[in-house]
Amino acid sequence: MQAPGSATAATGTGPEALIEAALAARTAAGERFFTAQAPRIARCCHRMAERFAREGRLLALGPTPASRSDARHVSVEFVHPVIVGKRALPAIALTAEGGPLAAQLAGLIGPEDICIGFGLDEGGAGAAEVAEALAQAAAAGAMTIGFAPGAPGGPEDGDERSWSFDPGGADPAIRQELVETLYHVLWELVHVFFDHRGLLEGRSARRTHDSGASSFLYPFLGEQQDDLAAVLTSVEESVLLKADEVAELRTRTATGSREALLAAAADLRCSFAAGGRVLAFGNGGSATDAMDLVADFRAWPGLPARPALDLTEDGAIVTAVANDVGVEEIFQRQLIAWGRPGDVAVAFSTSGGSENLIEGLAQARRMGIVTIALVGYDGGRIAADGLADHVILSPSQHIPRIQEAQATAYHLLRELCERGASPEPSNPVGEAGC
């Protein structure tokens, strides 16, 4: 497997060229993938909607540290929708902590369910395990979705129960970002078909039309209930619009926060040189971004392993502090326990205003820990009040697109830390040129 950005970074001479090449590669990959796959994505959304309408559930599989972040991300999006008008849908992530995936599926999977597997392109035992679990789900009658050429079956074989999507390319960072956009799009657009319930075969409820709260987002919701082709075409167009939106936001994020990215990379490099660690945290989908960042620092092809800790990982600690002290303290308490001067705290937020992130960043500063915040909207309190040393802004009000652009930002940050010559660090913590 190729290290992230290595094919393109080699053509430039510094961090500026690395960023430009990375953005160009992502724009080209996204346009290629979504242009080719938009019709299949629309049909996949339709089939998923039919399953949910028949009271099916989504089970997401993640056998490795990197793939479990995607499994948990997609499940939290379906269970806890963050866009007005979206309904909560039953979903859960099954990961390595629960034991072999096949054993976990055995007591849960049903014929109306949807099983989505991550990690097929990572190779090794994890890929084999998720492929076996997807085959098991298919045998039970469930719909399956995988993200590699080796995913079982596919509608082109005449079976619309098994779907495979290959993002293409050798860069694992770009592949992950395309997959994240894809499962966000599946989550967003599956709801369109609930608003055309006459198009849902075998549904348990028989209402003829329900334009619902999503109508202001999708003007085509007023079309006839029997015009599936027209709805599919409209969904395809929406897929392409969303892909264009995230491409534009990635560019705005990386260019608008270029200096923050470079300075944050310099502080990370100096921290590691002096024996420091990354401490990452966030809520909901942003918690899964913290998981992915930590997995990337611990093990990434072609880059040295770096010490990193995910403060969202231990559910017992998070729920104990939330229950007994307050949700606002769940990261502050852990930073007190684990943080040391010279470490780097990385906070993920779409709003920039989460109280527990603000408390965590304040605690980190009291302890002499460098702080990095990835935020959306206008940056919220974190940006307005300068609550982090480095603020990387994805200026959008659309949460899925913010998270997708943030994935690009932290993948760039990981690579810049190792490959890019950056400005002097803002908070020197050791020797080795820092």
Give the key terms.
about 425 residues; alpha/beta; Rossmann fold; 2 domains; disordered N terminus
Present the secondary structure layout.
Blueprint: H1 6-9, H2 15-53, E1 58-62, H3 65-79, E2 91-95, H4 101-106, E3 114-117, H5 124-139, E4 143-146, E5 162-164, H6 172-194, H7 228-256, H8 258-273, E6 278-282, H9 285-298, E7 308-310, H10 315-324, H11 330-338, E8 344-348, H12 355-366, E9 370-376, H13 380-384, E10 390-394, H14 399-419
Parallel strand pairs: 1-2, 1-3, 3-4, 4-5, 6-7, 6-8, 8-9, 9-10
Compute the number of structural domains: 2
Mean of residue pLDDT values? 88
CATH superfamily of the largest domain: Glucose-6-phosphate isomerase like protein, domain 1
Number of beta-strand segments: 10
Structure description:
The chain is of the alpha/beta class and 434 residues long. It folds into two domains: 6-248, Rossmann fold, CATH 3.40.50.10490; 257-419, Glucose-6-phosphate isomerase like protein, domain 1 (Rossmann fold). It is 50% helix and 11% strand. The chain contains 14 helices and ten strands. It has helices at residues 6-9, 15-53, 65-79, 101-106, 124-139, 172-194, 228-256, 258-273, 285-298, 315-324, 330-338, 355-366, 380-384, 399-419; strands spanning 58-62, 91-95, 114-117, 143-146, 162-164, 278-282, 308-310, 344-348, 370-376, 390-394. The strands form two sheets. A five-stranded parallel β-sheet has the order 2-1-3-4-5, sandwiched between helices. Strands 7-6-8-9-10 form a five-stranded parallel β-sheet, sandwiched between helices. Helix 5 (124-139) links the parallel strand 3 and strand 4. It is globular and about 60 Å long.
